[in-house]
Specification:
Number of strands: 25
Helix content: 25-40%
Number of helices: 22
Oligomer: single chain
Strand content: 15-25%
């Protein structure tokens, strides 16, 4: 190739002296040539906290075309280096490496790192960019006969046949394939080293499995990595953090403007059976529907080598959308256990603000009262840390709360929450009510990188506990032997979150008495005990009080110290959750 656009055949110098016909109509590309020399010569900048490599180039073969910064995540670089070493191992029969990852997390851009390694090794590189319907050929000075740096040619995919390309029959050629659509045909076996970067889609995996190969997978980007990239691209750090709670580690979604709406649209493409695999280790092999997931809602987290992964929701927003959209579907179809898990998550959201249907429970023979309404405004959460000897402090935190009557008197006196604060409460604060194992299983990155807006008692003054800044919910009480309740938002009001039918439930006398004593509940000032139950249990239950267990001489006297209610919280609409995400997105 002489550099002229009219040149159409591969020169003998490139073919190591052999005359091999090549019908590929290559055309010289000056922009791609300049990019290759930029990619090789750009001074490397390493962001030490994340290990990310940053290169500034004057042009690119990927969007955007002009001057830009290229970001290579440490995990991606390590995965490609590992694959290269394994593919180049003499004992490896099939010279093919596959890096599977979540769409939108920089998989295509990571292949530019592999291209750079090929340039550094003075290798001929063929880069099949199916997304742009172009194939590039990069040739070092030692192979094209010139002395002016790297040169590049290109050809439209419609005129490309990998099996007929003579360059791919050279063992020292690197062949990179950036997969476009699910089910793209796998490149045929060739002599060149072949590397691919498909998304975790079932159709992709089925196709790639035809020829086997060495496989690694890559997880989503971390918050720290997103902040580095967003900052270089003009997004303030606080904007990146807010958007991260909506889109998770999806880099492409971070930079889009319509992500909250697009994630709602993606709900249609999530198979209900997929949700049964949340928090369970699995494999994205061709026989598993786990591979058919839109990355905006469910992402694969690598576990070890090959296709082994765990699936998780990409963000708090994604988790709430899945819970709301598939709640009823899951009860009828393939994943009832996930339906229960998502139901419990929804129940834990309710203490953050909800409009509730309430029915007071009565003794046998009493008339069941009419249904009432209970409006719960958003709350600030105060957590009880599970440390030894803290039970008395947990009771003290509960006792420091105002009564329901005092809350009503103070209503409106606190500072009004901003739209952003209300959105954070709607989407994020509920994570503080999930037990750590569940939270880590569904949202592993948030366990490591984001502490939900849950305050510790040591950081919250008595005035704050007394409701001067709005409703406060103390969570984690059950960990201290106050076993009747999960949370309390007033000295005389507590909540038990239960997915079981109340007719099958019982209250232990010992923890109940400790509970009542802790807040000095009396017949004149009884504790209001609310059982949050699924809608179908609320509508089907007859209304009798929950049974006592463990024996008590004065059960009637004990019962007069508390009043029981059954609560059904009306589901927040997907539109409301989307609006909250839009507030955070900005």
């Amino acid at each position: 190739l002489s550099g002229e656009a009219s040149e159409r055949s591969v020169p003998r110098a490139l073919l190591q002296g052999r005359t091999i016909p090549d019908p590929t109509p290559w055309a010289y590309d000056s922009d791609a040539s300049r990019f290759a020399n930029d990619l090789l010569g750009a001074p490397p900048e390493v962001h030490e906290p994340t290990g990310m490599l940053i290169l500034n180039v004057s042009t690119s073969i990927m969007w955007p075309r002009g001057p830009t910064s290229l970001f290579f995540r440490k995990a991606a670089m390590e995965a490609w280096d590992t694959l290269r070493a394994e593919v180049q191992d003499p004992s490896n029969r099939l010279r093919r490496g596959i890096l599977v990852g979540n769409s939108g997390t920089g998989m295509s851009f990571s292949m530019l790192y592999l291209l750079r390694r090929g340039l550094q090794d003075d290798r001929v590189v063929v880069f099949e960019r199916r997304k742009e319907q172009l194939v590039y050929l990069f040739v070092p000075p030692s192979r094209h006969g010139g002395g002016d740096g790297w040169r590049a040619w290109r050809v439209p995919v419609r005129h490309w046949a990998a099996g007929e390309c003579a360059v791919l029959e050279q063992a020292d050629t690197m062949y990179l394939v950036d997969v476009d659509q699910p089910g793209d045909r796998s490149p045929p076996p060739v002599e060149a080293e072949c590397y691919m970067a498909p998304s975790t889609n079932r159709a992709n995996v089925e196709e790639l499995a035809k020829y086997d190969g060495t496989v690694r997978n890559l997880g989503v980007a971390t918050l720290a990595e997103m902040e580095v990239m967003g900052g270089r691209l003009g997004l303030p750090r606080e904007v990146v953090e807010r958007r991260y709670h909506v889109c998770g580690g999806n880099i492409r979604a971070l930079l889009a403007e319509g992500t909250p709406r697009a994630m709602v649209e993606d709900l249609r493409d999530v198979m209900p059976s997929m949700l049964g695999s949340l928090m369970r280790r699995g494999s994205i092999d061709p026989a598993s529907s786990m591979a058919r997931s839109p990355s905006s809602l469910i992402a694969a987290q690598p576990v070890g080598k090959g296709f082994s992964t765990t699936l998780h929701a990409t963000s708090p927003y994604a988790l709430q959308l899945l819970a709301l959209y598939y709640r009823d579907v899951l009860k009828r179809k393939a994943a009832p256990e996930t339906g229960r898990m998502l139901e419990r998550h929804l129940q834990r959201m309710y203490v953050l603000g909800a409009s509730c249907r309430v029915r007071r429970l009565v003794d046998e023979g009493e008339e069941v009262p009419a249904e009432e309404r209970l409006e719960l405004p958003p709350a600030r959460l105060v957590a009880c840390e599970p440390t030894e000897g803290e039970a008395s402090n947990a009771r003290a935190r509960w006792q420091a709360l105002p009564t329901v009557a005092q809350q009503r008197e103070a209503a409106g006196s606190g500072r009004e929450r901003s739209a952003e604060e209300r959105a954070r409460a709607a989407l994020i604060d509920s994570l503080g009510l999930l037990d750590p194992a569940t939270r880590h299983g569904i949202l592993p990155y948030y366990e490591l990188e984001y502490a939900p807006l849950v305050e510790q008692r040591e950081e919250a003054g008595e005035a704050s506990m007394a409701g001067g800044e709005g409703r406060v919910v103390v969570v984690g009480l059950r960990q201290y032997g106050l076993g009747c309740v999960d949370a309390a938002d007033a000295r005389d009001r507590a909540f038990d979150l239960t997915a079981s039918e109340l007719g099958d439930k019982s209250l232990g006398v010992k923890p109940l008495r400790a509970h009542l004593d802790a807040v000095a509940a009396t017949e004149a000032e009884p504790l209001q005990l609310y059982f949050l139950v699924p809608r179908e249990h609320f509508e089907a239950y007859g209304g009798g009080r929950v049974a006592l267990s463990g024996g008590v001489e004065d059960s009637e006297g004990l019962r007069r110290r508390y009043v029981e209610y059954m609560v059904c919280v009306e589901q927040p609409s997907i539109e409301a959750v989307q609006a909250a995400a839009g507030e955070l997105w900005g």
